[in-house]
Design goal:
The protein has 291 residues and is α/β, with parallel strands linked by helices. It contains six helices and 15 strands. Helix 1 packs parallel to helix 6 and helix 4 runs parallel beside helix 5. The chain is elongated, with a radius of gyration of 21 Å. This is Pyridine nucleotide-disulfide oxidoreductase.
Length: 291
């Protein structure tokens, strides 16, 4: 039986592991995809103290991966499909096997929301990095107005013919730094109090996107669509009675009301979701779990 199992190898999970192992915990981290979580997919990691200037998510993710190797952390690439409490310990079932631990830190993060529109088989993207060639010279529609959406729109504007940001609020919700950059970028058009209602597909590409006010964005060369409208929590594997908000995020402090159970990062109800707050949660969870 392990002292501790950590579910998720994003910034919060890795932070928790580093602090817990250094205090003597025998632990395992489970990750279903890649180390880094959502931050590993962004075009630029901004505002995190000491981050490499203009570093992209993949570079940041690799540094997390290198840190795991350098500290000899036990990382298993297995998807956790069930977490239950068994008397004085926890049972963690993965796609491969079952494991037991005295304590568990849930740092499973979140996944991007999908658009509530018929995509006609077109695969809507959530991240700009890796799509540079695909959007080159085309029209791009970014659904969203948050910091994340603004940052990706600015990155896409380097390659696209034009970028349309569609925001259902009456103004962009991003920080002032990004607003100023968007306002000064002639390639970016902002549509507030709007939403996508129809996608017009011709054979294998999108040629039209209709907004709620009837405006139609057209480009026979093709339109690429990116959805950045928030996240859903990765909590479906948790078989425990826990308080949640209306979106399903766990409404708990880092140290939960269930003995031996901790929550860190984006999976929690939080006013601010940033790398800094995730790392903070991980630190607190790792230290608490090691006591």
């Amino acid at each position: 039986m392990k002292d501790l199992i950590i579910i998720g190898a994003g910034p919060s999970g890795v932070s928790a592991a580093l602090y817990a192992q250094s205090r003597g915990c025998d632990l395992t981290i489970f990750e279903k995809e890649k180390v880094g979580g959502l931050i590993g997919k962004v075009s630029k990691v901004s505002h995190y103290t000491s981050v490499v200037v203009d570093e992209d998510g993949e570079s940041f993710r690799k540094r997390l991966e290198n840190q795991i190797k350098a500290y000899g952390l036990d990382l298993k690439y297995e998807e956790v499909i069930k977490l239950v409490k068994k008397d004085d310990h926890f049972l963690v079932k993965t796609s491969n096997a079952e494991y037991e631990a005295k304590k568990v830190i849930v740092a499973s993060g979140s996944s991007p929301k999908e658009l509530a529109v018929d995509t006609k088989g077109y695969e809507i993207s959530h991240w700009a990095r890796g799509y540079e060639e695909k959007v080159n010279g085309k029209t791009v529609v970014v659904n969203g107005g948050s910091d994340g959406a603004a940052k990706e729109a600015l990155y896409l504007a380097k390659f696209a013919k034009e970028v349309h940001m569609v925001q259902n609020q009456d103004k962009l919700m991003c920080i002032n730094e990004f607003k100023k950059a968007i306002e000064s970028n002639s390639k970016i058009n902002v549509h507030t109090s709007e939403e996508l209602v129809r996608i017009g597909k011709e054979e294998d590409h999108i040629e039209e996107v209709e907004l709620a006010n009837g405006e139609v964005i057209k480009d026979k060369a093709g339109i690429e669509i990116f959805a950045m409208i928030g996240q859903n929590p990765n909590t479906s594997f948790i078989d425990l009675d826990l308080p949640k908000d209306k979106l399903g995020f766990i409404d708990s402090e880092v140290v939960s009301d269930i003995e031996g159970l901790y929550f860190a990062g984006d999976v929690r109800v939080k006013a601010v979701r940033q790398v800094a707050t995730a790392v903070n949660d991980g630190c607190l969870a790792g230290i608490s779990a090691s006591k």
